[in-house]
């Protein structure tokens, strides 16, 4: 006959064994007091723990299912994704949207600023070229006008005088003093205009050959102008003026002669 280790009543238990049963006050059951036998309270606790484990396992399997379907089978990958998700939840959409808008505005602003500066520089370069061309035309016209009024040889006097011409803030030309780098003055202290400069040069023996009617123009061989001192300090003679070449042979050897075509 088998003896129950746990029973709800001692009825049917031999009297000589009933004294070996201990009543569990929590459950009301009787448990046979045998060495090595697990008490009912512990058995109940183990069952409860096992049920909790099963419940947690089922819950985890249910929660893990979406991650498994997404290809995340490693728990570390899952934890990483959950951490990223938590960080995303902390983001304020309005603030982030504002940042994105500000960044985009900054990019567009830099792009337009760069393009604007490039266009401005291009226009400035084009404008500088046009200004240079207009100033050169104005200088050439002024030289021709002054040359006609003073009987100067335009072809010969232009390269000499042109390097000394400047423009003031009003856009008018003036003669620069090569030493002081300022407007050149006449004898009474007034700014010297182009015609005044030509008349001054007409009286200078070094420049007389540049002017008709001075008795020196065309005095070279075959009607060529006599040698002239250039602004660089060199003697200027016609390349086809053999007489002048013979006369200044020593200066030619020293490199002190500039030939005019």
Short description:
The chain is mainly α. The protein has helices at residues 15-18, 40-69, 75-90, 93-150, 154-162, 194-202, 242-247, 249-254; strands at 6-7, 21-23, 30-32, 165-167, 173-175, 228-229, 235-238, 257-260.
Shape: rod-shaped
What is the number of E strands? 8
The side-by-side strand order for the widest beta sheet comes to 1-3-2
Proportion in helices? 40-55%
> Which structural class matches the secondary elements?
mainly alpha
Weakly predicted, low-confidence segments: 217-226
- Our count of helices gives 8
Distance between the termini: 146 Å
Order of helices and strands: EHEEHHHHEEHEEHHE
Q: Taking all residues together, what is the mean pLDDT? A: 77
Folded structure, characterized:
This protein has 261 residues and is mainly alpha-helical. Among the domains are: 100-215, no CATH class; 218-261, no CATH class. The protein has helices at residues 15-18, 40-69, 75-90, 93-150, 154-162, 194-202, 242-247, 249-254, and strands spanning 6-7, 21-23, 30-32, 165-167, 173-175, 228-229, 235-238, 257-260. Strand 6 and strand 7 form a beta hairpin. The chain is rod-shaped. The model is unreliable at 217-226 (pLDDT under 50).
Helix/strand layout:
Elements: E1 6-7, H1 15-18, E2 21-23, E3 30-32, H2 40-69, H3 75-90, H4 93-150, H5 154-162, E4 165-167, E5 173-175, H6 194-202, E6 228-229, E7 235-238, H7 242-247, H8 249-254, E8 257-260
Parallel strand pairs: 7-8
Antiparallel strand pairs: 1-3, 2-3, 4-5, 6-7
